[in-house]
Amino acid sequence: MILVTPLSAVEETIRLYRPSHLVTLLSPEHMIETPAGVDPARHLRLSVNDVAEAWGAEVPPEPHHVEKLLTFGRTWNCEAPMLVHCWAGISRSTAAAYILLCDRLGPGFEEKIAQRMRALAPHAFPNPLLVSHADKALAREGRMIDAVRAIGRGAIVAEGRCTELPLIFEEP
């Protein structure tokens, strides 16, 4: 499974789930070191601001961030969970988890993954710029963008909660 949490829940989630891989998506000024319990070689740190349009930040999500995420995700053997987090566990982290699941499950699952994410994480609001870059990188012809747009903004909260996203889905 892929776990999605806010930064405030990272240490507790590592203690409870013992993930083999960790993805951190934080603004450069808030980037963290690798927490205890995680091999630094299995920790991807992506310094990006949480913005929906590139002009809106000094460090917006770029295609190279998505490429790093996809490459890192493909090293994960799924024997232990992967933990993905951002500051609040709402936007960057849910986008990254969505991207990783779309890559892992292949074309045709975009809508099912987005709907499952909404059901399990009512607060999820996947970052549209990250999703847009991934849609292009994975040649999904807008299906990832449309699926995320279809689930809408979600519940407005200050911080998300730990969410378990399974890797098993029915065929599309």
CATH topology: the name is: Protein-Tyrosine Phosphatase, Chain A
CATH domain class = Alpha Beta
Which strand order does the major sheet show?
A: 3-2-4-1-5
Shape, principal axes of CA atoms: globular
What percent of the residues sit in helical stretches (DSSP H or I)? 25-40%
The overall strand count is 5
How would you sum up this structure, described in words?
The structure is a single chain. The protein has 172 residues and is α/β, with parallel strands linked by helices. It has one domain: Protein tyrosine phosphatase superfamily (Protein-Tyrosine Phosphatase, Chain A), CATH 3.90.190.10. Helices cover 37% and strands 14% of the residues. It is built from 6 helices and 5 strands. Strands 3-2-4-1-5 form a 5-stranded mixed β-sheet, sandwiched between helices. The chain is globular and about 40 Å long. The model has no long low-confidence stretch (mean pLDDT 95).
